[in-house]
Structures are given as C-alpha cells and as structure tokens.
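Troubleshooting entry. Yesterday's outputs looked truncated, so today I'm pasting the complete records for two proteins to confirm everything comes through intact. If either block looks cut off, that's the bug. Protein one:
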Amino acid sequence: MKTIAGALLLGLPATLLAKSTQELEHEVDEMHKQIATLTAMLDEENHERRLAMTGAQMEAKILVLEGNVTTVATAAADASTAAAAGDAELGAALDSCWLLICGTLVMFMHAGFAMLESGCCRAKNVSNVLLKNLTNLCVGTLAWYVTGWAFAYGGPDEDGDGMLDNGFIGTGEFFGMGFTSTDDSGVIAPYEEVGQSKMLGWFFQWAFCTAAATIVSGGVAERVQSPTYGCYAFVMAGFIYPVVVAWTWGYGWIAGFLDVGFMDFAGSGVVHLTGGASAIAGAIVLGPRKGRFENPEEFEPHNMPLVVLGTLSLWFGWYGFNCGSTLGMSDAATGAMGAQVAMNTTLSAATGGITAFVVTYLMTKLYDVSAMCNGILAGLVSITAGCGNMDCGSAIFTGMIGSCIFVGSSKLQKKLKIDDPVDASSVHGACGIWGVLACGLFDWGKGLDQVHGWSGFSCMTNEDGTCQTGIWGSFFATQLVMCIVICLWSGGLSGLTFFALMKTGKLRINEEVEDAGMDKAHHSPSKAYSMTA
C-alpha cells in the first residue's frame, strides 16, 4: 500500500503538490458547487423533457380515445340499423306466416260450404252440388287473377293520399302484372321495401273473393247447370265483388264518405251481404224448384251429419276470416286485437246457435238441428263487421239479434215463395245488413260522441292526436248507406247476369232432369252415394 501511495504522489503534477491544503480545499468546494449547478440544470432539463413527453402521450391517448368513441358510435349505429332491419324482416315474416295460415283457413271454408249445401239439398243432386262448388272455386280463382284483383286493389293513387283516385274501380295490375320488379341484371324483387308482398295480399283476398261467390251457389242450388253457372261465377269474382271491395277496403268513395268512412272489419257487408244479395237475386230470377212449396217435406235436408260437419267446418274457417283481418301479427297490440276478435267471434256464434234453436223450438215444439246450424252461421255473419270494435257483451247481443233476424227472414222468404235451399240470403244477406249496422250501434266509442272504428282499442283521432267528437251520426249513416249501395249493386248486377243467362236457355235445367235428378241425368257415377232419402 505504501509503495502504491508513493507512486501516486510521485505522479502528481508538481504544481498540485506545491499548493497548500487550504487552496486544495477551496478548489474542491468550487468543483462541488459547479457539479451541483450542473446537476440542477440536468434535473430541470429532464423535468421539462418528462413534461413534454407526458403531453404528447396524453394527446396520443386522447386521439386514440376519440377514435375509439367514433368507432363505438359507428358500431352502435350499424347495430341499431341492423336491429331495425332485422325487426322489419322478422315482422314481415310473421305477418306473411299469419296471413298464409289464415288465408288457408278461409279457403277450407269451401269444404264447409260444400258439405252444408250437399246435406241441405236432395240426395239425387249431391254430385251436381259438389261440382258447382268446385267450379265456383276454380273459375273464381281465374277471374280474381285476370281482373278481380285489379278492379279491387289496382289503384291508382297518384296523389299519394292512400285513397283510390277515381273512388270507384281499380285500373291496374291485371293478370298480376307489377307484383314484382326486375333490375337490369335480372334479379327479381318481391317488394319495393321489406314488408308484405302483393302476392301475399292476392292470396289472402282471393280466399275472401271465392267465399263471396260460393255463397250464391247455395241460393240457386238444384236447378242450375254447372257450366253456365261458371259464367256467372266469373262475373261475380271478376267484377261484381271486386268493385265493392274497391269502394271499401280498396279505399274508394265509401272509405272517405262523410269524412268518417265505414267500418267492416272482416266483411259482413263487403263479403256476406254481397253474396247474400246476389243469392236472393238469383233465386228470384230462377224461380223455385219444382214442387218446392207444394210438397215442402220432400225438400228437407237429407243428411244432417253433412249439415253439421259443414257448419263446424265453416265455424273453424271463420277464425281465419275474422282474426286474419288484422292483416298482420308482428306486434303485441295486433295480437291483442286478434284475441279480442276471436273471443267476440266465438261468443256471437254460440249465442246465435242457441237463440235460433230456442226460437224455432218455441214455434214448432220440435228440436231443429238445421236451425241451430244456421243460427251459428247467423251469429258468425253478424259479428264479422264489428268483431274488432265492440266488447264481448255487445258481441253476444249481436249474435242473439242476428239469429232472430235469420229466423224471421227465412220465414218471410217462404211466405213470398222465394226458394233458397240453404237460406244463404237470410244467413248472409239479412244478417250481413244487421252486422254492418250493429258495428255502428255497438262501437266501443265513448257514448254517442266518439267512434273507435278501425282504431280498435282507441278512438278515431284528429291530426293533433285528440279524439274526434260528434261523429257517431255520420259514422252510422255511412254504415247504412254502405248496406243500401251493396244491395243495389250486387243484387242488381247479379239479377241482370242471371236473367241474361236464363235467356240463353242454358242456365236452368228442364223438368225431366229436375224430376230424375241431375246426378242421374248428367253425372257418372249417377249417385254421390247409396241413399234412399
């Protein structure tokens, strides 16, 4: 150690060795001060550098956050748009499913019409009755395709107010033209925007159209030739019925009459009165069946099981008729309305059946199953217009009165010697009138001041959302006018059509065929079934 220390001392500059201890201590102090100053300067510089780095980092983070917020907002908007599109797609799918099911139920009513009419008529004409019903359905379908839809719903609505411009008849979409659109690449779009397609509307409304035409066939049963009757069926389904629809459901002149419009939820007037008025016109033009009022016991229903089966089939299909007229099932409010309609329909039908049975028993002191069946149908027809705008108590009363009207109308027609084999004009015509009027009388509206009508559970409103007041008189007057014009239009044109066909000599069968039965004269096999009745 001494050797090393000595060598170090020897290596120091001579000037350093020459200095005194005091001077060395002073210099060391100065050096310490300088080092402290430099250290402070470095600390300050490092602090500023750290501050500068923190600000930049914060700006970077803010930019990142802003980008994230924008991204999240964009994603949220996209998700909302996708959800809305998904809701629209789902809603359209639910509506389509609902109307396809209900339209099929209405179509099944033709089985009920066929069974009821077959049971009410004589066994020797059953095959002809069935053929006529099938002819009515097939010919009516083609008529609805060719002209029916176009006259009913073909527009135009150039001003975009939702009303038929000419107020009377549609003028477009014959043969289903314009139901879809095709772009330049050949891709077919079934609708302009997501929703119900026109093909769906065509199918659902077709079921109603052919039902109206089939009502007539019962009123002229057992005395018309099926091929010639097919000509009438085409006129009925292709022109007479569609024009009534254009006035009403097609937003024609009745839809805006007296600035209030009409209410016929599912067709007491549009469908049943149109068919019933046409049926009585045909029955009058054709005249009664041979011996109908001379030997009435020979014309009683020959097969009650078929009558009951037909009645129950019609009742079953009626849920498609009435409940389906919500025209959708994609939200809770519409579902509640569909349930209300079903409940009203059921109560009115049951009440109508019991009432007709009791009234007939009081008159004859006998149990009459056919009267009960027609009473059920009378209750169904009566509630069809107002099933969506009256409470259940009113529905029961509507069915009760409707059944009494049926019994009275049927008795009156027999007094007048009008031969309607299945009482189609009484059930569908007389009760159709009552149904339209009952819809106005028993509307849910508060007192006689407000009207619910098409608004269902709520009142008809002004543009500012307040309930319209003082409109019940106009509303009921519109219902009455609707009944009158449908009777004149449908009954008048049907009568003229039947009269013209009668003049050809090809509409009514001759007496020989009527005596032998149309099945034996024109059909193979000559009997629908082996039965002696």
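Protein two, checking that the full record survives here as well:
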Amino acid sequence: MAITNFTSLDFEDIKDTIKRYIRSDSKFTDYDYEGSTLSLIIDMLAYNTYISAYNANMLSNEVFLDGATLRENVVSLARNIGYVPRPRKASVAEVYFNVDTAEFPVLPRSLTLKKGIVAVNSEQFTNKNLTFCIPEDITSIVKDDQAEFDIKVYEGALVQQRFEVSEFDVNQRFILDNVGIDYTTLRVSVYGDAFTDDKVVYDLATSIREIDGDSKVYFLQEIPDERYELIFGDNIFGKKLENGNIVEVSYIVSNGEDGNGADLFRFVGNIVDNNNNVIDRDISIIQTTNSASGGLDIESVKSIKNYAGRIYASQNRAVTTNDYEAIVRKIYPEVESINAFGGEELSPPKFGRVFITIKPQSGNYISNSLKDSIKRELRKYSVAGIVPEILDTKYLFVECDTSVYYNSNLVSSANTVRQKVIRTLNNFADSDEMNMYGSRFKYTKFTSLIDKSDESITSNITEIRIRRDLRAVLNRRAEYEICFGNQFKILNQKGYNIKSSGFRVSGISKQVYLSDIPAADGETGEVVLITVQDIPPNVGNSQYIVDSPSASIVRRRVGTIDYIKGEIKLNAINIVSTEVEQNSIIQISASPNSNDVIGLHDLFLQFDVNYSSVNTIIDNISSGADPTGSRYISTPSYSDRNVIRLVENTLS
C-alpha cells in the first residue's frame, strides 16, 4: 500500500484519509467501517494523528520569534539576538522636605536619608498601599540650620539579596527571586569575602564594546516567570568572580503603572546625622514637586517581537530611520510611539539631519533636558555628519459628526443607541488603530464599527473633520505655520472652509476667527480674520449655527493656505488672548479631501470623542412605519454650516 500524505488537520478529514488508505488493500475494500469495531480503532488513530499534528505545529511555531506565543519562548529567542525586554518600571515622584536643626542639642554637620522606604501615599489617592523608596543613601549638608532634601522617590519596595560565590558549584546561578523588578534600579556590589567591608561596584553592561577582562560589569537576562538572572564575566569579557566573593544586590520591586498619579505623601523614612544618631523630629511635611509618573508594566510579548529584530538589525549603529527608532527605544524605554524621518523628505529639504518625534508613555511631551540627554546618547551610535533633532509631538485630531439610523422595533430608546455608539467611539479612540505615528484613520472600518454598536442600527452618515491646536504666543508679534499633512477639501468656493475657535488680536475690539478665501486655481488661498454676531453663552456644536451671512471679514491677507499640502501659514500677528484659555490654544479644523486620514511625519494621530457628535434618527423604512420611504429623513454627507468652531464639548 502507498504511503498517504495528510493534507488536512481536521479530525474528520484525517479519518477519511485513514479509511481510504485501508481500502487500498483488497481485503478491506467492502468493509463496513461505521458499524464495526474497526471504527473505534480508526477514531483513536485519527485522534492521535490530530493531537500529534497540532503539537508539531505549535512546536514549530515556538522555535521562531515571529510565531512564538509563550513569553518564555519569545524572551529566549530575543535573548539569542542580544535583546533584553524592558522591565516593569517604577513610577517616580519628585518631592521636597527639610529638617530644621536649630533646636537640636548638638548641631550636626550633615544628615543622611537612608536607602529604603521614604514615604507612603495618602489614602485619598488609591485604596492600594503604595510605598516610595530610594535605592541609595542621600546626604544633605546642614546650612543655616536647615538640611534640605530635593529628591526623586521610586514606587515599590527596596529588596536586598546576597550570594556567596562557590567554585565547587559548577552550575551556580545568580537568580533574583522576585517578580516585578525594575532592573534600572539594580545596585550590584562585590565583597572580597564575608568578613570584609571593602566592596567593588559592578555596572550593567549593555554591549561588549569597550569591555575587557578587567571591566567590573555584569550582564542581565530575563528567565521564566518574569524573573532575572545576573551573569558575570570570564576574564575575557568582564572580570570573573573569585571563590568566596560575596555578591550583594539591591533592587526595587514595583507595581508598575499602578503607582502613576500619586501626589500626596507622608514621611516614614529613616534619617541619621553624621554621628549616626537617628533623627525623628523637626521634619517638615513632604511637598510634591512632580506627581508620580513613568510607571510601566513589563514589556509585552507583542512589543518584544516587534522590536527585538529591529534592535538586532541596527547593530548598535544609527544609519537608517528604523535604526534611530530602535536605538531611541533602547535609550529611553518610556516611549509610547516614535517616528524618525530624514530631512530630505521635507519641503524644502534639510539634508544631513534626521528628525525624531517621541510620544512618552505618560504626558504629552518630553522635557528639553531629556531631549538633550537622548541626543547625547545618540552620538555614540550616529554616523558622522548626520545631526539628530528631536521635535515636540504635534497632535492631529480626528473628529466626527455621525447621524445613526436605527430600527425602533429592536431597541427601547434612542438614548440607548446613542450611548452604545459613544461607547464605540471611546473604545476606538483608545485602540491601536490610532494613538501612534504613521497610523491611518480608516473611514470604512470606522463606520462599520458604528453600525456594529447595536443590532438596531441600520446605517450611518458620518462626516469627518481634522483639527490642529495652535499654541499662541500672547502679546507678541509672531508667525505661525500649521501643517495637517492631509489635503483640505474645498466645500465652498467663496470661503469658510477652515474654522477656528475665537481669539483676540491687537487692533480689533471684537473676538475674531480664522477663515479662508480660495484662489481661482483651487489649490491655494488667502487666510482672513472674521467676526460674527454675538453668540449666546453655553451653546454646543449641535445646538447653534453660525452661518456665513452672520460673518464679516475684518482683516485680509492674514496669511496663506495650501489646500493640497494641508498647510496654513500666518503672517506676523499679535494675539492678545484666546477663547480656549488653557495653554492659550486656538483650535483650527477643516474637512479632509479624503476620509482616510494619515498621521504624516511628526503628526500623532488621535480621535477626539469630546468634539464629536452623535445624532440618532429612526429608520422609518426598516421599522415599517414608512415602507414606501416617502417620509424618509436624508442626511447630507457634508452638513456642518458653521463658519467657526464652537468650543464647548459636544458629548460632555
């Protein structure tokens, strides 16, 4: 009998294949397979084949980084190419307190805050008992009877472990016992033996460059159960440990993201003076300079699979834009999204420069000091002649006005439909479809999600807007350039295609708004300032219409607009105040020429639910109230007749 090739892993198909194989023997040609004991044997063979094929398939997947699903396998494969996953990061708060020594019997020269726990969070913040500590002692000199501590505290508990090196244990491993370690807080010291106080501090090595046999370094790798192992040198790459050495390790075990936001603290630390006397009096309350932030959970399997190969491909040198993205993540792990692009892609081009935009995990921007630190580290990897520049994050917001048609026979009320659609919009705003550089808003996918919000929904008509927020420099003449990275749609040849929130400028008493007048070519135009009739207070986008007859142009040639490039340039203008007072913002919006919106270059794409609107309409045809459709309510695709932005949140 010929060997049978199995082409399907389905149980029934395997059974049929076995039967065909047996029938190829003339003795079993007319055998009744369904009504005989042989049927049970065939079932067992098929089941065994099915399980074996499944296990073989899973096993083959787990030996490749792209196909592996178990974390320990993904980490092991990433380790083979030199990638160490990001640890669980402790959130960090900046706090200040002082000790008044004026009433001390003996005036100390200095006070030392001992490493370990320093503060606990206030109960008002969370029902979790969070502690904040420091990994090393901090000493403050007493000056004018005051010892000041302006410090960073890390959420979590400080843990210490000791290992004794034994040359008789050939399989000795230095494994850290705890889960949730922030290995950036690791402090490793090596003592000659158990009876000496002299120690040598070892540093974490991230590569073998510039390391020789005398380097006091250790290597780190993640092992199963999200724990870590220390590996020391062999006198070729790093100094080898000797028999009897004592390895002392301290680290912080953190709760990751749970510590973010803490800003009320109570002091519970340990302070001693220069004579090692405990200080427990005249300690001020803790003042919070910066709330706890930066806490992260351990790097996910998806992220490891995405970036391990990129780090390896960069080979510790920054040449391509992918190299820069991978290396910046290595330097600054708290990156939520990053994009790098060459200056030659700009108009006009800027050769010899690479531009990097970073969206941090917490907050919207990174500080100037952090930018400088990242650029300094990048110099170790950059090719000569290439200058990296780090740009502030620029947000491109997508908003929608959606009219949802629903069958009233399948739902209790219109509000139920509306709330489910709003929930869908919120879920979409938090999804991976948005919230990253280079992402794309996919219109058809978005509208299909709205349709799936509830079984009663029959269709929707959804209008899309894009918005940028201009941060104005008040009481000073300044020029502005606002890039949307998407072509504008000209809805009205007479103008009013771009809309803005209100602001006041020098020389005009009333509140003004930005608008436009297209040129004859339909590609460029003129930016103008307009005023409108007084608007009643507390109106929302869906409640009030400010149309073109109520608008008046008060200043021409304020700037230019390029509808093709999606760029607005404002000439020097003195802005006195803005309607959106927070951060002196002027909101500017337009309709995109394509409903598929992309986040180009340094634009971080986000969906803004607060400035979107949801309108529900009964589908009289589907509900049976109007089978002929004579009373059907149609909704135009472009229905916004406002010539300005009304800044009150629509869905608040």
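Both blocks look complete. Sanity check on protein two: The mean pLDDT is 84.
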